[in-house]
Amino acid sequence: MSVGETEVALPQSRSLAIRFCGRWIISWKLLIINILISGFIIVGGDLSKADENTSIRLWLFYLLLAYASVILFSTIIHRTLFKNRATQPVPLWMVLAFQFVFGSIFTTVYQLGIVASRLPVQLAAPSRIILIISTSIWLGLSSSALADIWEEISRRHNELVARRVHLMILELNQKNIETQLRNELQIELEMGLQESNTELIQNLQRITKGMYLKPSKISQAIKNSAEQSIRPLSKALWKASADSYPRPRFGPIALSAMREQPIQTFWLASLIVLSQSINPFIEIGFWRGLLILTITVISVTAICETSNFILKRAPRFGIQIFVTAFIFLQIRRRVTEIQLERWGHTSLNASTFRTQLIINALSFISLSILSAWYVINEQSLNKFQDEINEEQIAAITRSKQTSDIARDLSRILHGAVQTRLVACAMLIDNSSKTGDEVSLNLALLEALSILQAPLPKPEVSLDLSSEVARKISLWEGLCSFELLIDPRLENLQNPEPREVGRLIEEGISNAIRHGKASTILISIMLGASGSVVIQIDDNGSGISKSNIGKPGIGNAIFSLATGGSWSLTSLDRGTRLLAVLSTNKTKD
Amino acid sequence: MMIPMVNPLRLLLVDDDPFTRLTLCATLQTLKFSNIAPAQSVTEAISIALEIKPQAAIIDLDLGEGPTGIDLAHKLREMFPRIGVVILSTYAEPRLIGSNQQPMPERAIYVVKQSISETNTLLDAITSSLNVITSHGMVNSAPSPVEDLGDIQIDIMRLVAAGMSNAEIASSLIMQEGSVEKSIARLIKKLGIKASQKQNQRVLIAHEYHRLTK
Description:
The complex is a heterodimer.
Chain A: H1 16-21, H2 28-45, H3 56-79, H4 92-116, H5 125-172, H6 177-208, H7 215-228, H8 232-242, H9 250-259, H10 265-283, H11 286-313, H12 318-342, H13 350-397, H14 401-434, H15 437-452, H16 464-475, E1 480-485, H17 497-513, E2 519-526, E3 532-538, H18 553-562, E4 566-570, E5 575-581
Parallel strand pairs in A: 1-2
Antiparallel strand pairs in A: 2-3, 3-5, 4-5
Helix pairs in contact in A: 3-4, 4-5, 5-8, 5-10, 5-13, 6-7, 6-14, 6-15, 7-14, 9-13, 10-11, 11-12, 14-15, 16-17, 17-18
Chain B: E1 7-14, H1 18-30, E2 33-39, H2 42-52, E3 56-60, H3 69-79, E4 84-89, E5 109-112, H4 119-134, H5 151-161, H6 166-173, H7 177-191, H8 201-212
Parallel strand pairs in B: 1-2, 1-3, 3-4, 4-5
Helix pairs in contact in B: 2-3, 5-7, 5-8, 6-7
């Protein structure tokens, strides 16, 4: 999908090294998960070997002590060396060193517990240390990477949903929004008010027909209505936006895992090496163990990479390739076991073999599903992003002026309607206290009319001189004005008089608010190529140096409207604002 | 029991909505104010003020299109330095009405309409606005929930609530997009918005803005 130059760039994929070295190196959530996993493995493995001489309490004490030690160690590193890891990834060697020390601390303390509690374990102490440290490093690194991927996807998802929220609002600012928004707001407001205030309206109708109801109750109901029922449209809009992102479902992910995804060689090889090769490595001696380990890594890599190679060339046979790879991996495993048995390693019985086969199959499928989950999420996010890019371009090309109308309406809705309802409530209170029936009836009728037709019409002038005169009249009294308009601009259509009026009002407000001007001279002239030149001279205190170049809406309004063709200069007494509104600008 | 005397204070009452103006007039009359001059616009308010020389003014912050109640209050202070000023508003903080506002005039009393539970609140505000003139020092109705926020942060909050993206906000305020992101992060922290998978933080900012400007 092409969306042209304005397409928002996709965030670059993070390298594995960065994933290992970011904020997830130390995370309390991951630490708890890893403790649970390792605890499950240790309890299932070691505790089952306990006999009558074993002190379970002592063993448990040392296990908890080992966890406490690594938590303390992680906390210290979290607050010192890795303090800024979220923003500046730490070097990979430091992460490996951290994981190594982490594993070593845990293993040392736990190993002391094994000795102290007299727990009979099969493996000699050094082999156990190697095993536990390797597991710790592998578990730490893989969980960091996984969490980082998860976070990245969630962050992108949230960003996209947020952008869609913006777009849905922008979409409302279309050409005919004034009518649409007015209608929607009116309907929503009336529905909201009527739903929550049916009783209130009935009461008001009854009381205005002469039936008595306690005024304090009515005034309280009106206050509640003013506070609770004013913004139903915006709430509905937020809810609709949050539901707009399609979440990938498990079914397609599982299918894609077998049919389309390449096998994750690195992770699979790590898992196999860790789970199957270290134990025999220790039992059959160092050199034979090293040979088996090397052959395992090479054979697993060869099977996986060959499968991926074939998958690339014959994608329609995805499932067959997936199953074949799994069978080959099992054959490889069986061959290794036969060789291990020859070298004196304990042979597996049938039930253990079956269990391991199931675990292998599950691990194999899980890794592929994980990979598919990532890829499908990526594709889905990219598609979503493309859609949003297109929507954004469409939304930006629509007139920005309509957002002003929307804002005007929302001000009417939030300000005037609520103010009037609260005012009604106050008057009802007062009238009931003083017994002033005329005021009471007036207030009740007013409340009823607000509830039934709450929106007044906004005021807009169509020709330049009346629009500018209207804008100036709003500020009269705060300042005296002189106005000169080039007669050739009388029937100005482009740029729109409304746009000119908006800039003039901004200039007036700046001169009065920041320059304390008492006299303002406004000249509107026809410039080159049909442009409109606005000049506003005031006798105020001049330009404050602190405000020059300062970001703000005021500066931005001029920059956006004129495309940067505006200036502010000091006069002998006061300031001159010069802005050129080109014809083409407002056509876009 | 003593019957309260009629209060001869010359009051200028400015509100663009006719019914609210009428209501406030009636309310002030029940509070025994006898010299109330209502006005619906800045221009009319200044013209009346020149005539009656008010001692206190009750001004709606949002006077519709054009100048705000704060602009008028500054002008009245310039004309009558000792005038007591009460600004009435539905906005929790005057800066929330929009950017490019002047600060509140010194010693003015800001009253959020929703906080008016009874008519005496209005009387207290008028009394305070006059008292702070004769004594010195400032009376605030209540600590503002956004007083810790800078003007730019309030602008950003408003623009987020208007549905703008960071890039659009950056363009609107002539800022770098990175600065907008940082400002939003600080805003989130200051508003005490917690990160959540269920609700987008920008949406929560918008909710907060609408809550403060209801």
